[in-house]
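Human:
Care to share another protein and its fold?

Assistant:
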Amino acid sequence: MNWINSSHIHTLAPRQMLEGMRTNLLPWFGQNDFENWLNIVSTIPNCGRLFLEIHPFSPTSRCDIITSILASDSSLSAWLDAPVSSSSIIWEKTSSILRRWQKQICSQKGNLRSMCFMMGLEFDLFAQQNNLGDPSILFTLTPKDNIQELAEEISDYPELHSAVLNFLSAIKKKTKLYERVVQLNPITLGHIGYMASRQNKNDILPLRSCWRCDDIEHFYQILLISGIQFDKSLLLNELIWLENIKEYINSFMLHLDNYDIFEADFSLEVNVVNSQMHLSEKRENAILQAIINLGFLSSEQKHVLMNFSNRYSLGNDQIFYCSLHHFKIKFSNSKIQEIKCYWLIRTVDIRPMPQNKIRKDMPEVYV
């Protein structure tokens, strides 16, 4: 695992970083689509890390953006101070949650502050669209089991509030997840999120919950406890190829969606992050080739994606790294339907941090 103290994170404008990757990103989009996508991303304020979500199966050029928000690296303030690119209802509700979170962090009081140490905003970005659109919101949870308290803090976002309560009901009344997982080891529940960017009208969407798995057998156990019907022998066969790349796998995370009960479709996130950049080529070649062998990536796409990982310099001591962080396997009827890949871009400030500026109480963030 690669842990860094968030007080060392240096923030940059996403456009700066992505412009710095122009040569390697441009082949994924083509010249015209890349320029349009870059202009859209330029409305995102400074941050210390973001993800490029690559969709190999998309019929048109696509690279979604997930930006991480922290109070300790000023990215929360950057979002609240930046002019919002849209006046949509979803933006208003999301901004309200961010403002409340900032207020509670400053006052050191509140359930939102104690239950969430990082948030993420995800944007679905097709090359031909005209603006950033609405965000999906993701909460990275501290290991607590009182989801009710979190729901109370987001009541000004009624759809998200209802979705969290539905989730709470699902894990308490309709499955064994609460008593066998959440109460015994709250850290297992890693993230919850609301995919508002995919909302066509003002209705309630399923809540996305992400569960940390100790190993692949733990993944099957949580899936079973969640009440989802699946064919384990078929699923085992679908995942046998992971044995070929097991030396690169750090951990697993199960993604579930629920209304009143958990949906039959689910995803498995496979974390493969490694801080040793000199190992990237061998590691990523093996992982992407395995995905090619399954038919979910082309050799041409692999050639382009292999160039993403690198150490980039913008001058003036501004350094950032890009490397493959994880891939996500989507299942339906216990069979793989799609595999998406996620590249992490993280900044590094190579200037030494003055000792009187280093706070030992700052949270550490897994990247």
